[in-house]
Structures are given as structure tokens and as C-alpha cells.
Amino acid sequence: MPHVLSDGCRIHYRSEGSPKAPALLFSNSLGTTQELWDPQVARFAASFHVIRYDTRGHGQSGAPPGEYTIGQLGGDAIAVLDALGVSRAHVCGLSLGGLTAMWLGIHFAERIESLTLASTGAMIATPAVWQERIVQVNAGGLGSIAEGAKDRWFTAAFRAAHPDTVERHVRMLVSGPAAGYIGCCAVLRDTDLRDEIAAIVAPALVVAAVDDPVTPPANAEFMKSRIPESELVILNGSHIANVEQADAFSEQLLRFLHG
Questions:
Q1: Taking Cα atoms as reference points, which of 72, 105, 109, 70 lies closest to residue 223?
Q2: So what's the pLDDT on residue 1?
């Protein structure tokens, strides 16, 4: 995968589909990599220039020590678009990726065609939750949160029916650098966009899942109430909705993007 330097950090990305097609940038969640979007890529690359990247601190991207900021994560996404010569893009982010997408919609409106905000919130959980997670990973490593991630990411029914898929996503988590995970936990701890998202002018698709304990539907309803040109879709499943409900997620996203 090629990479770009952003604020001194190597950000790895990949590009699929025709560069002449409308650009669609996918941004992954905390503890996953760009492979999170594997269920969507083939379908979307047929009509979009699909761009994926590993969020700072994840996958093959760099993991500088210390705490990161939402501005850094947003800057990384812009650096990827710049590296590919993309002036405007549809942006689809899940959880932390959705928070990044909102920040882009607020601060780089001229670069955004649309936003898809999946399993996310303008503020996710509470600062205390993320500080506790930082302490836990510092003490016990990423392995100490693996079982909890399974429960948060997928419903019990999906875990029973698709154990290989669940284990593949847990491997993404535990194989990543702890420093990068902690750096991004700081972003989640420190970011509250609830008062800013009303400034988003791009059309937005807000996607929630009924059984998501991390970003419940109430988060999505709040975003829908504040973002002027937005619509809300609630799927079955849990936090990693694009995997657990891959077909339904892709169908809703295609419908939204094709207008």
C-alpha cells in the first residue's frame, strides 16, 4: 500500500475503482483497520473511486507516541485525498471514523460531497469511559480488552453464527500497536462536536444499529436532529454494522450516494 506523510506520521492507504469515478473515502473504527470495509469494497468500486486508509495508530499507518487529536485525524484524511489528487469526496466513517467525518464536514466543507455517519456520535460515551480504557490498555495491553470488544462489536447471534468473522476483527484489534489505540482513545475522550454539527452543510446519512451498546440509536437521533440535511436509518445488529448487516448497510449507502 502507498503512504503519505501527515503531520510527520505515515498514513497508509489504498485506492480501488476508477480514479475518474466519484471518490468515496472510508474511515475505520477504533481498533480496526481499513480491512473493516472489505464487505463493501467490491460492490462500491464498480461505480466509485474507493479510497481506504488505516487511521493513525492502526494497521500499517504510523503510531506516534502520545495523545492524538481529532484535528490530526481529520488532517490525515485530507492528506490522503491530496495524495490522490481528489478535490471532493463522499466520506463514510464508522464510530471513530464517523467522528472524523463530522469534523471534516465542519472544517473542510468544500472537500465533502456527502457524509455517512455510521455507529457513531457527536460525542461517544464519556471522557471517563475512555480514560478508563487508556488505563486498562496501559496496564494489560490490547489483549485485555479483546473479549469485551467481541461483546460490544457484534450481537450474540452473530458471534455464534460467524465465529471466524468475529475472530478476524478481534485479530485486527490485538495485532495493532497499543500506543496507537491509546492515542485514539484520547481523541474520543476529548472530542465533543455536539454544538458544532449544526454547521454541517453536506447531505448526511446517519446509520445506527438497534443493539449497539457503544453508540446507541439515541446518538443517531441527536445527530439527525442537529445536522440540517440528514436522514436516519436504523439497522439490526450491533456496533460494527457494516459487517454484521453488510448487505443492508451497503444497500442503504448505495441508495443514499446515488440519490
A1: 105
A2: 72
